[in-house]
Every structure is written in C-alpha cells, then in structure tokens.
Amino acid sequence: MSKDKSKDTESVKNGWDExxxxxxxWYQAFEGACENYVDWELLKKYLPKNKDAKILDAAGGxxxxxxxxxxxxxxxxxxxxxxxxxxVAKEKMKREGMLDKVEISExxxxxxxxxxxxxxxxxxxxxxxxxxxxxxxxxxxxGKVSIFxxxxxxxxxxxxxxxxxxxxxxxxxxxxxIHHDEEKHKALSPExxxxxxxxxxxxxxxxxxxxxxxxxxxxxxxxxKSIEWDEKFFKQTTEILLRLSKEPSVKGLSRHLVLYGExx
Length: 264
Ligand SMILES: C[S@@+](CC[C@H](N)C(=O)[O-])C[C@H]1O[C@@H](n2cnc3c(N)ncnc32)[C@H](O)[C@@H]1O
Description:
With about 260 residues, the chain is α/β, with parallel strands linked by helices. The protein is about 40% helix and about 25% strand.
C-alpha cells in the first residue's frame, strides 16, 4: 500500500471513529427511519431462503443490517475499517444476545481477509465502487450481491448550489469522483453501473434509487428531524419512496443507487 493510500485509509477510519456514538441516532428520526424502511423492503426480496446461508455485511458499521439479519437466523460476518463503529455494533449484539451469531472483523473492504467464494450473500452499503472487485471475489457462484454506489446525476444536482463548476465536471466526466469528508468515491449512472457489473461477471437483477429522495418531497425540516411521527404519514412517505426507487424516469436523482445481482 502506498503512503498516500494508507494516509487516506487512516483519515477515513478516524472520521468514522468520531461518528460512531451518534451514527444510530440518525435512523431514530423520521428521515433515517424512512430510509431504513425502504432499504429493508428492497433487501427482503433478495435474501437467501436458506437460513444457513453465510452473509457478509461489508463496511457494516454499527450493525444496522447485521443485527436484524442475525435475529432472522443467518450467520453473519460484519466487517468494517472503524474499530469504534464495530465496538458500538458489538455492544448492540451483546445487549440483544446475538454476539455468538456474528463474526466481527476489522478490515478494509478493498482488501478483505476472506478466501475466494466464501459467502452466499455480500452486502456493502457505503457507496464504495472501489470495493466492487473484492466483494465479487468473495461471493460464491450463484451467490448474490447488494452494493450501494454513488449516483452521478444525483450528486451533481446536490453539488450545484455550492460549486457549479464541480457539478458540471462531474456530469461531463466519464470517470467522475465525489469527495465527501475524507472519502472519495467514483460516481456512476445506473447504466454505467449495470455495464460494469455485467463485465465483472454479475448478472444485474435491478438497480434502485435510494437515499436523498426525501429532498424532493419538501417535507418540513422539523418533521424530518422528529423522533415521533404520524404513522399514516410515515406509510405514505415510505410508499412513495419505494415507488420512486423503482421508477426509471427518476432513478438518476437519488444520492445512492443500490444494485442487486448474482455472480455467474
Ligand atoms: C455510512 S456508514 C454505513 C454503515 C452500514 N453499512 C449501514 O448501512 O448502516 C459507512 C461505513 O463504512 C465504513 N468504511 C468506510 N471505508 C471503509 C473501508 N475502506 N473498509 C471498511 N469499511 C469502511 C465506515 O467505517 C462506516 O462504518
């Protein structure tokens, strides 16, 4: 690893270490709860039928996905680069009596410590295109993948107000990168994502638009941040988000794309 690369990795790790204690709070307010609901509704359809399946939750942080998967009976490996995020996860697993169902590993998703074809299902919900090859390596043949990617048009739209030049560069470039805090990730359009994964031997089932779609619904800030809400409004909001996540004409607009596919 070059010096620069290890410095980047160190800053990413430190950044997430600082967020660890507050990360889960975002999912307790309306905005996060809606996004969590949509993430799960989409995921449910692709989960292995067989509860003996081995699942990797890569860059899984505080175990938002790992904990419910372990409770459903799957054998889950949670890996992340941030020891503090993993500590929060460990405490949650302990509290819920799930610690012995989950293997926790501190590692970089771009250099996974697992042999080829170790998992039936691999998730990486961090928007990290750079990890794609390594994630595909550890999936068994016929195993499934769910990966979050940065959405090129969505990113350009949200960057425009602060930096019109960089938003336009992003849209015009074939190799577009998004800088956020200490992280830098490649952004793709749904078509570019499909083309890339199919070239790497993954049959793409579907690509959905997730995260950031609430911005288009003009919901008042106090509702988004509130930790108590009207159930009927929650249902209406999540239903529209789910419908929009599948709607081809709006797929370019979200912050992330989530791609589901199968290794062939
Ligand atoms: C936005 S959080 C997502 C956590 C979890 N996947 C979820 O959806 O709640 C991003 C996570 O990616 C982790 N991460 C960032 N870069 C990583 C890398 N190179 N290797 C492993 N984990 C990484 C961070 O430490 C953080 O826990």
